[in-house]
Amino acid sequence: MNLAISLLVVVAIASIIGTVLQQNQPYTSYQIKFGPFWFDLFKSLELYDVYSALWFLAILAFLVVSIATCVGRNTPGIIRELRHFRENVQEKSLRAMKHQAAINSMQDATVTQALATRILHAQGFKTRPKAVEDHTVVAGMKGGANHWGYWLTHLGMIVIFLGGLMDSRLPIMIAEWQGNLKPETRDIPASEVPAVSQLSDSSFSYRGSVDIPEGSRANIIFQPVRDGYLVQHLPFEVEVKEFRVEHYSTGQPKSFESDIVIHDKTLDAPLETTISVNHPLIHNGVAIYQANFGDGGSELKLRLHSLSNRYASQDVDGKVFRDYTLTSSDQQYKLEVNDFRLFNINDMEDGSGKIEKKNVGPSVTFKLRDATGQALEYQNYMNPLSIKGQNYFISGVRTTPNEPFRYLHIPVDTKGSMERFMRFLSNIQNTELVKQSALQTTRNSMQQTTVADPAVEAQIVESMQRLTEQFATKGSEGIMAEIAAKFPQDKQESAAEAFMKVLNAALREVYKETLKQEGMTAEPTEADWLFFDDSLLAIDKLPAYGSPWLIHMDSFKQIEASGLQITRSPGKDVVYFGSLMLTIGVFLLFYVAHRRIWVWIKPLDNNQAEIVLAGSSNRNQPEFERYFQQLQGLFQQVMKQEVKHVDSPTNH
Predict the structure, then answer these.
(1) Which of 80, 317, 452, 525 has its CA 20 to 30 A from that of 133?
(2) Residue of 572, 618, 570 whose CA lies nearest to 591
(3) Pfam families given for it (predicted)?
(4) pLDDT value for 451
(5) Of 146, 143, 116, nearest to 128 (Cα)?
(6) Is 523 exposed, middle or buried (0-12, 13-18, 19+ CB in 10 A)?
(7) Which residues contact 547 (CB under 8 A, 6 or more apart)?
(8) Residues 182-225: pLDDT tens digits?
């Protein structure tokens, strides 16, 4: 019993873990969520697929065998207990019981026996009398359903465990052990998955998911297995005619549903219906749930703004989940478009400084992979975002999925575009323009100081040109690294201040030239210089940005995909039936008591009789104590004189 209870506690805890911890997700998701230490620990305990873990299945199998053995051993004794009224009990045994009383009857033994039988029948007892030479025993028994509670409780647990084993991945595990099945770990199209990683449409049970774009159909699902997956074929095709989603004013999804069509050879005509969350379709024992939604291959127009004069700007007409090769002057990149989101709910600061959730519009997520295979992930927003009163185009970058995005803020010009920033950045990288601007700045400064030395002028121009080039390629960190290498520590602060003054003067002159290229002839305004400061902050971060282009989404055509979870679980109904058995069994065990009453009748010489009344119950002794006292009072009242009707004092 102690072992069984301990194992049931383990099963209960495992079931709680399986409910709280989302099961059968890609291992990378768990690594991001828990970190390497906890990921490895949970993996070793098989908590990511706890219901198919070997130890979990072993416990279920052991409990099935153990409980079945227990029921088999105890059932003959219980049957004997239900059939045996124990009418051979002795007077001495009855008087030794806790619940017993001696009563004198005014009737003879025959009438007393009849009255006792009538009382017990009125109380719901089945009786069996036995008469011997000097006494008669009337044995009564009720509450045999309590033992049915024992059977239903234990058999219900067996049925539940068998249902769990029916829906487990035990057949898949056995096939893996035999070498007949091997999960696929590569990210390849389903048509290229080898036969050893595919399951036929006659599988006994399965659970998997598939994303079907609008207007498309599928006859497979993907079953996650550890760090891979299996392709499960379905006995029919599922077509998504239309997917609809409603949003709250904040952009959060409110509800979503799909119009689907089932193409099944066993049907005379295709089956059309609408499914939504918590309203699945059940077809031939297969349940189709509306689980989620995502992108179905939206069409995007992307503009690749060059961040270096070594690369050319270009346009790409792309689709989500497609890869594109980008060529440049000295190396090749691969653009992997991973996702498109129409709504993005972010925490934004309003004009009063209060943080509120706001929909910031569409975004595209992609990876840029260089020739060595190294990739950075980017998330770029289509519309400018307002931050503390200033508008910026936002681009996030990260090296691994388990780290947060680091954001690049590109200031927005008066036209609502990034055109001025890109022209300014290009001008900074234009050697001739930087040289002319540095020369103009130097001459203006030397005229004010009445110094006219061509050698000094050339040296200042060269310094300004070199600092600008370093800033454009390495940022301020590159300049500080050079200062640290060339100057002693006590001189570095003053050197950095001088360098930054020279650099700022050169960049301001380049910026003025940029404004002239836009047709501005007046002096820059305060807003223009604020744009200049924001641009320098953005340019300073470009060396760590890792991309030769800033990829901006100009337009899109959204194509949504309906995320369906498709399951075949014949063990589910078995589990429900077992749960019903368990519930009824527990109710019978707790609320129905098996009670026995004995009435030992001994005739006396004066044509009267002596009664010994005794009883026992297998549970709730305080309540039975009260009941026995009431029953004793009823016997005492009735045995004084014969009555035609015997009623129960209370309902029990």
Answers:
(1) 80
(2) 618
(3) ResB
(4) 47
(5) 116
(6) exposed
(7) 307, 368, 376, 378, 397
(8) 999 888 888 899 999 999 999 999 999 999 999 899 999 999 88
